[in-house]
Amino acid sequence: MQRLFTARQQGHGDTVPISVTTDTQATMEEKQAFENQVLERLNAGRSVRSFLIAAVDLLSEAVNGLVLQVFRKDDYAVKYAVEPLLLGDGPLGELSVRLKLIYGLGIISRGEYEDCELLMALREELNHDHSDYRFVDDEILGPFGELHCVAAWPQAPALSGDDEMLRAMQQQRYQQVVRSTMVLSLTELISRISLKQTFKKPGS
């Protein structure tokens, strides 16, 4: 007989199987470990350009994983039927096409789809614009302000008038907070997409 917790849930008479709690705990630990990996890779991008490259690479990995879930899982099917679809000259070779597929199948929400599209477009724009942008520049904050995954942006500080050292410190602090907001928001977005299962409703 399966062992059960002797303690009862507060306000309920049902006992809780140890196996259920153990499985839930293991799942939470795996989720946390994955989020930590995503956070580490995003945090390594010190410049705006390297940050966006890391973000889109991670999104590409997440989308690829979902596309593979859509198709048959056995090795033969993956090697001879699925992989050719995902190659550069295959019908699903472009990340934007794979993204449209999983959105069209209802695997990701509209907000998640639009966030991915925006990040891909911004990275593509920076491929042609070699300016050394900061995280607080309007060219970066403007597009990022449209992301659904960012709950709230930090307020820009009221810079002190004459004290240049204080102004510099305030600007540096603001940039750090903005960058941290970007890192944490995209970590949550990428992790949420990566850990989805196909053919479940968006947000599940």
TrEMBL record:
It holds the Pfam family MtlR. It comes from the Bacteria. One of its GO terms (biological process) is negative regulation of DNA-templated transcription. SUPFAM superfamilies: MtlR-like. Signal peptide: none annotated. This is Mannitol operon repressor. It comes from Duffyella gerundensis.
